[in-house]
Amino acid sequence: MSSRSPDEFRLGVRPYDRGAGSGDEPEDPHELLHRARRLTAHGHPWAGSAWERAATALRRAGGVLTPGDHADALDATALDCRGAARPAAGPLFFRAADLHEQAGQRGKALVSRARALVAGPGPGATACARLAELCERATALHRAGRAGVAETATVRLLHGRVRADLLDTAPDPTAEAAALREELARLIAFAAPHRADPAVLRVLADTRALLGRITAPDDPAAAAAQLRTALDDQRAGGRLWPATEHRLLLSAVLRATGAHEEAAALLRAALVPEVTDTPLRAADRARLCLALARTVAGADEHGRTARDGTEMTEGLPAETAAEAWEETAADVLDETAEEDGERLSLLAEAVRHTDGPAQDVRVGALARLLLGVAHAERGRYGTALALLEQALPGFADDGDTAGRVRARAWLAECLLHLGEPGRAAREYALAAAEARSWDDPRHGAALSRRAMHTLGPAGTHGPVPQTPGTGGTVYADAKTETEAPAEGGAPGGGARGPWPGLRELPEPFGPPGRYQVDVYGEVGGAGPQAATAPGTRVQGCE
């Protein structure tokens, strides 16, 4: 039986930094088909591209894919759907499930249906209930010998991921998290006796990573142990390409426990894979760069505190103590400059890797915001302004209020330092209007006051032009905080940098609950102001 045209899974998206179609790749369609099957069996991220080439070559030779091969091709292609292509994943998985059924592969069909449910827009209680039904069907098929251990375990794992996403909406999240940990422990016990099968070992790795995620808020040490084992299982299962989510989660746990150097080493290793031909998605590389920049900044702050020289100079004569202080201060300055340069370089690299057809809007917006803020803090207001203007539409598309407020506030500060107080006041007013929707009223009030004071340098003491959503007109008073400076200068001709209140604003894209994950891999660190931001699911389709 032949399947429908292979063109239906050709999305025209290239999510990887380099393709698998170079070098000594075979030209014969049957060899390409064999290669695609092999990569699929190994769970390789290049399987989707391999199927596309095999299907094209087969069609040119007058052949077609069988339903089973076509289903595997659709599965692999759907797993490639990240960033802008993500909405296509669900329909591809559902079509793959139908083809698996035609081919008599009922276990694979259940996996595809489960992935389709997880890939949907924010799976909720309904999807969770349907996944529970699929788990029962998978268990029954396994008992009848019609579904493998890896297939059954995968369906159960996907159900666990959706349950994890819904933990913070449960009446008792802590109790529900404990129940989910018990279920994941049973899943590990079910799969562990079959770990000789690489496919089972890969499911075990992902199960331990999920267990680490929901353990992190309550027991970071236990979470770190689970995540280390997950990485070991991933390697033992033949997945030599980076497990980005696992590494991000582990590095975040290490940061939370103060192990900044170990976290940085882990992230650097992920950015430079041991095997040179392993793929790393551009968006994943960007997230790793953002997490490493965050780790470097945290290590710098931690290091300065640890090296304040107090213990070094206790009991020393005054002259000797002064010399020790000077040496320590010089060392700290040198290390700070080096770490600062690395952080800027990492943020710039993150921005570069968020362009392209498969770009991740939220990661791209965050990368530009962070790089823009970094330049603004160093007085490079013109460079910062361009980056912040590019970031703002991304936050608008993603619906993250915290991101829009922070971007507008920093944009206003740059405009003020560049001698445009009128535009600056408008941006501050827009930021204040959005911040008023938060539970904490202090940010909105502070931004409103900043909008009022900003107009002072222009000699304007009338109303700031009312903008949609401001909830009223903001009036400037006669008091001034700043005077229009030149590029790189400070208001009033002094040496002051940006307004300190900017650093108090909530961060964008934080996890909206205790058990949710943000773009850095951190679990449960967000305040209520960021509650509108969707969580980042841990490899929800895989």
Question: What is the gist of this entry?
Answer:
With 542 residues, the protein is an all-alpha fold. The chain has helices spanning 29-41, 47-60, 67-79, 89-102, 106-118, 125-143, 149-165, 173-191, 198-215, 220-236, 244-256, 260-271, 282-306, 310-313, 318-352, 361-377, 381-398, 401-417, 421-435, 442-454. It is built from 20 helices and no strands.
Model description:
Helices cover about 60% and strands about 0% of the residues. It contains 20 helices and no strands. Helix 5 (about 105-120) packs antiparallel against helix 6 (about 125-145) and helix 11 runs parallel beside helix 13. The two termini are about 30 Å apart.
Task: Tell me the layout of helices and strands.
Elements: H1 29-41, H2 47-60, H3 67-79, H4 89-102, H5 106-118, H6 125-143, H7 149-165, H8 173-191, H9 198-215, H10 220-236, H11 244-256, H12 260-271, H13 282-306, H14 310-313, H15 318-352, H16 361-377, H17 381-398, H18 401-417, H19 421-435, H20 442-454
Task: Summarize this structure as a short list of keywords or feature phrases.
542 residues, mainly alpha, 20 helices, 60% helix, 0% strand, globular, disordered N terminus, disordered C terminus
